[in-house]
Amino acid sequence: MLSTLASASSPVTAAPPAPLLEVRDLRVHFFVREGVVRAVDGVDFRVNPGETLGIVGESGSGKTVSSMSIMRLVPPPARNVGGQILFEGEDLLAKTPDEMEALRGRRIAMIFQNPATSLNPIYSIGAQLGEILRWHLKLSRAEADARVVELLTLVGISDPATRLRQFPHELSGGMKQRVGIARALLCNPSLVLADEPTTALDVTIQAQILELLADLQARLKMSMVLVTHDMGVVARMAHRITVMYAGRVCESADAATIFNAPQHPYTRALLESMPRIDQSYTGTKRQPLPTIAGRPPNLLNPPPGCRFHDRCPEASAECRRLLPLETTIAPGHSVSCLKRGSEGIAA
Amino acid sequence: MGTARYIARRLIFSLCLIIGVSIILFTMINAIGNPIEVLLAERPGITEEMIQAVTEYYGLHGSVTDRYFTWIWALLRLDFGTSIIYNLPVSEMLVTYGLETLKIQVPAILIALCVSVLISVLAATRQYSRVDFGVIAGAMVGHSLPGFLLGIILILVFSYTLGILPSYGAYSTRNPLWGSDMADALWHMVLPVGMLVFFNCATLTLLLRSSLVDVLRQDFITAARASGLPERRVVFGHALRNAFIPVLTYLGILFGLMLGTAPVTETVFTWPGLGALYIMAIQQLDYPLIMGATMVITVMLVTATLLTDIAYVAIDPRIRLG
Ligand SMILES: Nc1ncnc2c1ncn2[C@@H]1O[C@H](COP(=O)(O)OP(=O)(O)O)[C@@H](O)[C@H]1O
Ligand SMILES: [Mg+2]
């Protein structure tokens, strides 16, 4: 039954295409008074051109920090302490601040979680979106207005010419998120990072926004990183999925593989805790959803071994001692688990 | 509700406020009794008739309501009466002394505004750094330092020890410095303006820095950065404008009380301004002067409050007029 969930399957290609974005061994640590918080500690993932990568994991697993790192916008006391972020073959971590500035909003753009706080309250929609166009593309005021209207129409906002002059507080939550999406698409970026883009919205609006994102992604053939804690969301949206846990990647594969043949015990647990259509909430057979027992480890000086060992049903003595390294078990499918043949290092 | 109607309503409210203050002021001055009797009491050779004559000369006869309306009617014609001590028209004195006060207050507020914006940006963009802590500490000290103390230190250092800046007055009594009236006036302004800048700066920086720190943490700032806007535009265009909203009220009060907050500075530097004049008028019970100055200060404050409210509407679209 899991297969019905993985509706967005990856295009079948003989050789894997050159990725648009490839993150290798990314490490971002928070240097706080109590010590070092290893929020992101050796993360790998890649995004192919024209595909959506879903990054999924419980809250606190390092998804936001990872996506902010791609923008090079992690705030202090966080600091990038290693790895590579290859975007169109160039390492973003080696770029100068000016080069990053020219890239942000233009070739990589971001959609934020909370539309209520991510628009500037004192500027009109036209003013704040137009400013970005005038800055990056040196458009005139009239040209920028025309482009903003075009984008507002694209994201399904009615009467865009009026919206142009309105302020964020005059729009509904869903409408604001549409504006947030329009803002990200202004300069035709090749990569869009969406961090929990529907988490702050009403349930009915969530579906509309996801539909819009999926539609735009397909129509504009853009690449997207969709960060979420919700397996249901990645099921609808993602071509590939990377599962994160406690600052590390557990498993990466195309969506069909993750849903039909998950390998990592954490991926399996996540899928089991997901509400499913077939064992629906209707009727009398209602069962409580299974949840994963226990809590993620403290990332401030985490214990040795696999990060998941104390919640893992399969954990053995070596899982408490050795940190599993990512291993490719099939083309495009990698997993980090000693029980699935991963190599382990003492850490 | 339209902006025009909002402003009209605020105008009417302001007018009521001014009338209210005028009634309270008039009642309190009257509660003292006939000021002529108070002033002339215990002087030898003063007869009842003489007091009667002077009372009538100053228009202090008749019923209280009659006198109030006479006073208001005169005020509307900008006739503030005659100063008892100086024997000059009060309106003329208010203009002369008021301009001297504005001459140091307006530059002081404007300079303080620019300086505190720069310092706040410097501190808030480096939150918890040494620069930031230094700014907070400095602003706290400045905020709590007694006004006269700084004035005296300034005089001791720049006038007494170094001898490079004048310590009192607005003009040289004999020859102007370097034979130029303009240079002479500017030279005399340096210390009092410096002292006012320091105090205004301390408070403005405390308010603006903390407001800016709050704003810089907001999502829309990260979003502006993620849109590729340069840091300069993010801070000055997006953050600072938002950060100013809570500071506007204080800025309004600063402008509104310009004429009323000068006494300490004007006393320390013997500045011929309205603040010093006001203190003197109260000490000597020069009631036309007291009433005139109080009304001018009231009108200033009410006008500044009105302008602040209008500024809020202009800067913050979320404010619902009503
Ligand atoms: N300001 C901070 N100081 C210290 N640690 C932090 C801070 N912000 C985030 N972290 C750490 O980073 C981890 C990952 O955070 P985040 O990327 O926001 O998680 P997610 O987006 O997956 O919910 C958190 O579990 C926390 O330990
Ligand atoms: Mg997050």
Automatic annotation (TrEMBL), chain A:
<dbReference type="Pfam" id="PF08352">
    <property type="entry name" value="oligo_HPY"/>
</dbReference>
<dbReference type="InterPro" id="IPR017871">
    <property type="entry name" value="ABC_transporter-like_CS"/>
</dbReference>
<dbReference type="InterPro" id="IPR013563">
    <property type="entry name" value="Oligopep_ABC_C"/>
</dbReference>
<dbReference type="GO" id="GO:0015833">
    <property type="term" value="P:peptide transport"/>
</dbReference>
<protein>
    <submittedName>
        <fullName>ABC transporter ATP-binding protein</fullName>
    </submittedName>
</protein>
<keyword id="KW-0813">Transport</keyword>
<keyword id="KW-1003">Cell membrane</keyword>
<dbReference type="InterPro" id="IPR003593">
    <property type="entry name" value="AAA+_ATPase"/>
</dbReference>
<dbReference type="InterPro" id="IPR050388">
    <property type="entry name" value="ABC_Ni/Peptide_Import"/>
</dbReference>
<dbReference type="InterPro" id="IPR003439">
    <property type="entry name" value="ABC_transporter-like_ATP-bd"/>
</dbReference>
<keyword id="KW-0472">Membrane</keyword>
<keyword id="KW-0067">ATP-binding</keyword>
<dbReference type="InterPro" id="IPR027417">
    <property type="entry name" value="P-loop_NTPase"/>
</dbReference>
<dbReference type="GO" id="GO:0005524">
    <property type="term" value="F:ATP binding"/>
</dbReference>
<dbReference type="GO" id="GO:0055085">
    <property type="term" value="P:transmembrane transport"/>
</dbReference>
<dbReference type="GO" id="GO:0005886">
    <property type="term" value="C:plasma membrane"/>
</dbReference>
<dbReference type="Pfam" id="PF00005">
    <property type="entry name" value="ABC_tran"/>
</dbReference>
<dbReference type="GO" id="GO:0016887">
    <property type="term" value="F:ATP hydrolysis activity"/>
</dbReference>
<keyword id="KW-0547">Nucleotide-binding</keyword>
<feature type="domain" description="ABC transporter">
    <location>
        <begin position="23"/>
        <end position="271"/>
    </location>
</feature>
<comment type="similarity">
    <text>Belongs to the ABC transporter superfamily.</text>
</comment>
TrEMBL record, chain B:
<dbReference type="InterPro" id="IPR000515">
    <property type="entry name" value="MetI-like"/>
</dbReference>
<dbReference type="GO" id="GO:0071916">
    <property type="term" value="F:dipeptide transmembrane transporter activity"/>
</dbReference>
<feature type="transmembrane region" description="Helical">
    <location>
        <begin position="12"/>
        <end position="33"/>
    </location>
</feature>
<dbReference type="InterPro" id="IPR035906">
    <property type="entry name" value="MetI-like_sf"/>
</dbReference>
<dbReference type="GO" id="GO:0005886">
    <property type="term" value="C:plasma membrane"/>
</dbReference>
<keyword id="KW-0813">Transport</keyword>
<dbReference type="Pfam" id="PF00528">
    <property type="entry name" value="BPD_transp_1"/>
</dbReference>
<feature type="domain" description="ABC transmembrane type-1">
    <location>
        <begin position="98"/>
        <end position="308"/>
    </location>
</feature>
<feature type="transmembrane region" description="Helical">
    <location>
        <begin position="145"/>
        <end position="165"/>
    </location>
</feature>
<keyword id="KW-1133">Transmembrane helix</keyword>
<comment type="similarity">
    <text>Belongs to the binding-protein-dependent transport system permease family.</text>
</comment>
<keyword id="KW-0812">Transmembrane</keyword>
<protein>
    <submittedName>
        <fullName>ABC transporter permease</fullName>
    </submittedName>
</protein>
<feature type="transmembrane region" description="Helical">
    <location>
        <begin position="247"/>
        <end position="269"/>
    </location>
</feature>
<keyword id="KW-0472">Membrane</keyword>
<keyword id="KW-1003">Cell membrane</keyword>
<feature type="transmembrane region" description="Helical">
    <location>
        <begin position="185"/>
        <end position="208"/>
    </location>
</feature>
<feature type="transmembrane region" description="Helical">
    <location>
        <begin position="289"/>
        <end position="315"/>
    </location>
</feature>
<feature type="transmembrane region" description="Helical">
    <location>
        <begin position="104"/>
        <end position="124"/>
    </location>
</feature>
